[in-house]
Design a protein that fits this description.
Elements lengths: L16 H18 L6 H15 L6 H13 L14 E4 L6 H16 L7 E4 L11 E2 L14 H9 L14 E4 L9 E3 L8 E3 L14 E3 L3 E2 L2 E5 L2 E3 L4 E2 L2 E2 H8 L9 H7 L11 H20 L3 E2 L1 H17 L8 H4 L25 E4 L13
Parallel strand pairs: 1-2, 12-13
Antiparallel strand pairs: 2-11, 3-4, 4-5, 6-7, 8-11, 9-10, 9-14
Helix pairs in contact: 1-2, 6-8, 7-8
Bound molecules: arginine.
Length: about 375
Amino acid sequence: MDLPPASAPVRRRPPTNKAVLAAAEVFIRQYATENPDDGDLRRRLAEVTAEVESSGTYEHTPGELAFGARVAWRNAARCIGRLYWNNLIVRDLRHVTHSDDIASECFEHLRIATNAGRIRPVISVFAPDRPRRPAASLLSEQLVRYADDPRSATRTALARNLGWKGGETPFEVLPLLIQPGPGLGLTPEFYEAPEDTVLEVPLAHPSHPGFADLGLRWYAVPAVSDMSLEIGGVTYPAAPFSGWYMGTEIGSRNLADSDRYNLLPAVAELFDLDTRNERTLWRDRALVELNLAVLHSYDQAGVTIADHHTESRRFLAHVDRERRHGRPVPTDWSWIVPPLSGGATAVFHRYYDPEDPDLRPAFIHRPQGQCPQPGSTA
Ligand code: ARG
């Protein structure tokens, strides 16, 4: 993360009324097409137009918000888990604007999503940006992240700069970092997650008793919080969303990548693999053992997790179903093919509809400048 200094306050250029109206019309029409029983299109278009002309923005109905959030998931070209897009639980928290309240609702999000291990997909949508009045946003990459994950180095430093005292031991959960909206001060706030909100799984291997001694663990709910939700010309900068994990995200990337926890050498040693020569495929064998441990441990703990073979088949079922509805499935092959045994999964052997960067509703990475650098907390 390269971030500009915090002293430059958050300034997103407000879109013109014309741009908002054009995006709104496309969305309101799409909503009407896919929800033909909900209201009168012509009347709704007139209402939205009048609202934008007088205020520069407009308010989604609860139905539009839920549909918009679900379609943003459906449009997410990098997500293999889209079969269940229409079951997303949408929490309408547009009235919540103060950082303290945003933090408590984020923690409530984790409780609802965790559901004692039977993970449910959830999004919490906080107040949208208004013209010249950007709303509060989350600086955390996910609601749960670990302080010693190299990927979190900048945020860990920021938390410490703000006065957080933790982060001395492995796998400590980072506090939630929130950038308040304008008028509430520009200094980010940090909030430690209450004990009961972060379910974690200690990792053990189904047949190697020594694996547990590595002291590894991971959390149950991946909740992405550094993207904005854009629906019909309205931007929701605080809209954390979560599903359940696919094992390879943890076993092949988070714990294995050399710029993350870099654990392949340690696993190879535990399994006594010959690491002197690439052609023993020790990396590949260590990857399989690590992934086995992840799936096994989540199963043992009663925490929902998908394996990449099953999730690949579900994704192709999703592609088929969308085709029957006459809708394209924009897809990024390089993200959909799992980072383990790619060619042994069904998603490898074909191409997909191209991505369209202008497609909305969508989750969009917030422009940098949203996250202050450690050291400059003004
Ligand atoms: N890949 C990210 C991680 O390992 C999580 C992204 C969202 N994943 C999901 N299964 N919903 O933390």
